[in-house]
């Protein structure tokens, strides 16, 4: 199974267009959106190419391949534009390996405030815009960073689960973080 992860698009049409191109080129079966999809939020600047309506229209073309959770900047008004559910604060995926993956945005649950996890489980979240793929205290922490607002001087990034490897990459293919699950 191959999964593609994006978080914190914040309504940027150019970032979303590039994310979709990378998703399609990756061969991943599903696009996992970890929140803050359409709205830029009051603490962020207005992103380049801010156009939530067109971002929604583009994402809706892939709605049957999207699994999404709500970010702290997402609202019921955003849901009205999207053809896929995105208002859940979290979702669980059961991977082929039998491991569980907890999907969330990161403002309620994150690497420091975790749900009940078994040894080897994965928590995937965004919110910080900082890429991470590492084992911490018997759980895997995964954050794909952000294609719109990267932080800490890091480049724009997205994530992939390919087999038993979680990777965070730049659009140019540079590996920023990687771990085996």
Q: How helical, in percent, are the residues? A: 10-25%
Poorly predicted regions: none
Structural class: alpha/beta
CATH architecture: 4-Layer Sandwich
CATH homologous superfamily identity: Metallo-dependent phosphatases
Largest sheet: 6 strands, mixed
User: For the residues shown, what is the average pLDDT?
Assistant: 96
User: What is the global morphology?
Assistant: globular
Beta percentage is 25-35%
CATH topology: Purple Acid Phosphatase, chain A, domain 2
Alpha plus pi helix count = 3
* Order of strands, widest sheet: 3-2-1-9-10-11
Report the top-level CATH class.
Alpha Beta
Q: How many β strands by DSSP?
A: 11
H/E series, N to C?
EHEHEHEEEEEEEE
Instruction: Please report the distance between the alpha carbons of the first and last residues.
Output: 13 Å
Query: How many structural domains does the protein architecture include?
Result: 1
**Over all CA atoms, what is the radius of gyration?**
15 Å
């Amino acid at each position: 199974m191959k999964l593609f992860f994006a978080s914190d698009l914040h309504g940027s049409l150019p970032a979303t267009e590039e994310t979709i191109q990378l998703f399609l080129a990756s061969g991943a079966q599903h696009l996992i959106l970890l929140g803050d999809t359409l709205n830029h939020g009051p603490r962020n600047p207005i992103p380049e190419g801010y156009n939530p309506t067109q971002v929604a229209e583009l994402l809706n073309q892939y709605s049957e391949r999207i699994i999404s959770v709500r970010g702290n900047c997402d609202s019921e008004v955003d849901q009205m534009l999207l053809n896929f559910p995105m208002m859940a604060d979290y979702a669980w995926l059961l991977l082929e390996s039998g491991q569980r993956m907890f999907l969330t945005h990161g403002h309620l649950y994150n690497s420091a405030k975790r749900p009940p996890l078994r040894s080897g489980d994965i928590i995937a979240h965004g919110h910080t815009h900082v890429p991470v793929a590492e084992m911490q205290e018997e759980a895997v922490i995964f954050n794909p960073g952000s294609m719109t607002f990267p932080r800490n001087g890091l480049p724009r990034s997205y994530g992939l689960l390919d087999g038993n490897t979680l990777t965070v990459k730049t659009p140019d293919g540079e590996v920023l973080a990687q771990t085996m699950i």
